[in-house]
């Protein structure tokens, strides 16, 4: 962890000063005294080595450097909030009010923001989160082990209702040194189907979505089966072979250049990520709130 950003409380307070226009207003928003807020800002200025806030009788405003630091800090503070919401949901508590199961793509890349939004409107709600592949999530919902679930597979078992919360696209990815990384023409669907891939296990929504997209061709036996998206990405980066993963899961690696996307022609690789619940039942309370948050995200 970089030494200047080990404590995000000061950066969070700086963002409030920028939004509210004074240290006093920011202090009230954070439930601390104005002297304590001023001291925290001074400590942050000492950490960063630059003046962040101009103080005057009319209020406080960020310096040019302060505005720049605030812009840099904003996504970090938001990501920390998402992380906190996700970790809190993983802790199964006796007073839990809402039980959620999610496929790995949704659990890793979408659900934390939704849980953070739920905490803002239902701060007293405890959430217990489990993750697995789409088949396991559907089974948990049907067995009443959870109140609602999120899946990424195209198949929906009988007994479930569903609503789309996001659209994802499957991406064929390879290591930068792979021969396909230098291709100028799209990979043909039949060639992709015949190529052994690094793949998720059976029951995975990603694997099933690819099977449906490439039908009637049958997929070759996987080169390697792994139950973790992170493990698959690592194996691809090591040059073991190609893989097909959701665009949400590989966005950072494609930007960094540690993975390369290969176009696939003649086939639609989009898929729906869906909220599921028991057919005939009605979502209520925090479950309905979380469902509404997720659907608004669509």
TrEMBL record:
Signal sequence span is none
One Pfam family recorded for the sequence: LysR_substrate
Q: Which UniProt keywords apply?
A: DNA-binding, Transcription, Transcription regulation
Which terms in the Gene Ontology molecular function aspect does this entry carry?
Answer: DNA-binding transcription factor activity; transcription cis-regulatory region binding
- List residues of the HTH lysR-type domain: 6-63
| Xref: InterPro entries | LysR_HTH_N, LysR_subst-bd, WH-like_DNA-bd_sf, WH_DNA-bd_sf
Keyword rRNA-binding appears in the UniProt entry: no
Q: Which family does it belong to?
A: Belongs to the LysR transcriptional regulatory family.
**PANTHER family from the xrefs?**
HTH-TYPE TRANSCRIPTIONAL REGULATOR, HTH-TYPE TRANSCRIPTIONAL REGULATOR CYSL
Protein name from the UniProt record: Transcriptional regulator, LysR family
Species this protein is from: Amycolatopsis methanolica 239
User: What are the leading ranks of the lineage?
Assistant: Bacteria, Bacillati, Actinomycetota, Actinomycetes, Pseudonocardiales
